[in-house]
């Protein structure tokens, strides 16, 4: 297979950036899109030119670092896959493919296709953990968890924090990401203890980071490689409303 790649090249966050075109031949259908970029880079390096910068770590859909818009869609045209899992058999021989970084103000471009998603860490640090003392490892069945709750928590815990939800949303909202983190913790008994404070702190961190708000567009759910559901956002909104009212009443009673 052969392809024409239009790749976004940008030296740093201040550089306006531009598309550059590369022809790539002898592509095997089972190669991933990242392997095609590797192939282009090998050629660029051989010619003494600057290689295309992009992130990847696991290359099996686990780490969430391969944040690339392929033909205008976060992670490309296949549903429920990351770019590292996007095989070239999904394209037609001779296609022109456009690759650019995820674009959202809270995700500045570092170089070419690499973006800085460390703002997600700030949201996690605001409450995306369980802070109660759990002591030594206890017997697995000491805290009963229903099968339904375990499955529900695991569905949300699949979020790999890639940022596809933000990149796809017209408002650059991070509500699918934040709500998935909240849902997987608050669904389990260990995390339910502090859910009221967690939801306020994480939503506050998300808003301060400059992300927009959900307007039920649904692009985030469609683009999410782990198929996190919009129902997580609905649950976060309900918990936020309840918790805001509860905290206000608590303050009034103690003042
Ligand atoms: S490189 Fe880890 S998810 Fe793609």
Strand residues, percent: 5-15%
Mean pLDDT equals 93
Sheet with the most strands?
A: 5 strands, mixed
CATH topology term of the largest domain: Fumarate Reductase Iron-sulfur Protein, Chain B, domain 2
Overall CATH architecture of the largest domain: Orthogonal Bundle
Bound molecules: FE2/S2 (inorganic) cluster
Helicity range:
25-40%
Write a structural description:
The chain has 9 helices and 7 strands. With 255 residues, the chain is α+β, with helices and mostly antiparallel strands. The chain has a 5-stranded mixed sheet. Strands 6-7 form a two-stranded antiparallel ribbon. β3 and β4 form a beta hairpin. The longest helix has 24 residues. It is elongated. The protein starts with a strand and ends with a helix. It binds FE2/S2 (inorganic) cluster. FE2/S2 (inorganic) cluster (FES) binds next to loops.
